[in-house]
Amino acid sequence: MAKWILISGVSGVIGEGIFKEIVAKHKDEFKIACVFRNINSSKSFFTKFENYKCNVIPIFYDLSTDFDDVIINQIGVEEVDFCLGIHCAADVSWDKAIEQVYPINVLGSINFCKLLLQICSNNHLIYISSAYTSTESWNYRNGYEKSKALAETAIRNKFPEIDISTFSCSLVVGEMADGYISRFHGLYPLFKLLFLLSPPLLVGDVTCRINIVPLNWVIDELFGLCKKHFHKSKPEIVVASGGETQMTLFNLVELLVIYINEYRAKKQLDPIKPIPIIKHRQWGFLKNSLEKWKPNGISINDFKYLIHLLEIYRPYTVSDTVRPPLNVQNQAPNFEDYYSVILDYWVQEHETLISRKLR
Predict the structure, then answer these.
(1) Is 0.70 surpassed by the pTM of this model?
(2) Are 16 and 150 within one domain?
(3) Could you list the residue range(s) of the whole structural domain that residue 301 is in?
(4) Buried-state track 255-281, b at ≥16 Cβ within 10 A, e below 16
(5) Are 163 and 271 contained in the same domain?
(6) Domain check: are 205 and 353 in the same one?
(7) Separation between Cα atoms, residue 260 and residue 258, nearest integer Å
(8) What residues have CB less than 8 Å from 54, skipping those under 6 apart?
(9) Number of domains the chain contains
């Protein structure tokens, strides 16, 4: 009898990472199926990972749409002894309302469970969530946080027959070895802002701690949880957050400015000045004036981008509430130990844009 692993969201940061790890180490032990929104999304993925194609069974289904009981006919599943589902698919945007992310984040999670049950009644599920949210006693800062909590509550209530583990991580950056990451979400728009615009100020609490974790550590922790489920262990809650390795907003910005000025020195450009961080109360008074002032060197579109980012990051530069590490195998590495590798990769991927902007 066959054993299956079903993964959603393999085009995302976490999904891609755990997919590569499982294929590399367990492709002969399990049949691996991936959920793709459509054929085009699968072609895009396998163009990037051509060597993995022969090991994967694609299932074409948009998780945000009504569930179709005949989806499984696409693959003709034989008798399956066990199936581990790893649900990574989600809209991780911080600037969308709950109504916008609800279809994929909540309904998509419910539909993934339905698909899992259609493959096999003997199954386990690992639901990927965020260390910046919880199902209980939490002040949700945006629609994303609320949607992830609603989804976890919904699948636990609707599918008591599924053994569900939750894996939650904080802000993920690239791998420590080479900086690689498939998508530049989370902190990367802030990196882009500082590199390209040298903003006159940032807004937040200088003592607010920013919880950053590297991709390779997150995937190691997630894979450790997967291995437990391979042996049908009991459900578990894992929180892969930084814990004591967090740095303050002030320290983070200071570190980034040092890196930027080292880069600018190599390009024989003048250094940028230290970037002041003001409180949101002060920003409220300044915002209207700044919109009329239009700071030198920043286009209207760039200035709108600056204001937009400040609003997106606001909840996380005022409140550093995050769930502490739980059931992790190893403590998260310190960001100071690998930040230059992370930024080197981002610069390498954006060299043309950076050169054009700096000119």
Answers:
(1) yes
(2) yes
(3) 188-209+246-320+334-358
(4) bbbebbbebbeeeeeeeeeebebeeee
(5) no
(6) yes
(7) 6
(8) none
(9) 2
For the chain (359 residues), the mean pLDDT of every run of 10, in chain order, is 89 95 85 90 83 78 79 63 94 95 97 91 94 96 97 98 97 97 93 88 92 98 94 91 90 96 93 91 72 61 80 89 96 96 96 83
**CATH number of the domain that residue 9 is part of:** 3.40.50.720
Buried b (16+ CB within 10 A) or exposed e, 3-31: bbbbbbbbbbbbbbbbbebbbeebeeebb
Distance (Å, whole) CA 110 – CA 90: 12
Residues 197 and 150 in one domain: no
DSSP H stretches of helix in the chain: 13-26, 39-48, 98-102, 108-119, 143-158, 188-197, 215-230, 249-266, 280-293, 300-318, 339-349, 351-358
Q: Are strands 2-8 and 80-87 parallel, antiparallel or unpaired?
A: parallel
- Residues 137, 200 share a domain: no
- Write down the residue that tokens 């739980």 correspond to: 326
Q: Are residues 141 and 255 in the same domain?
A: no
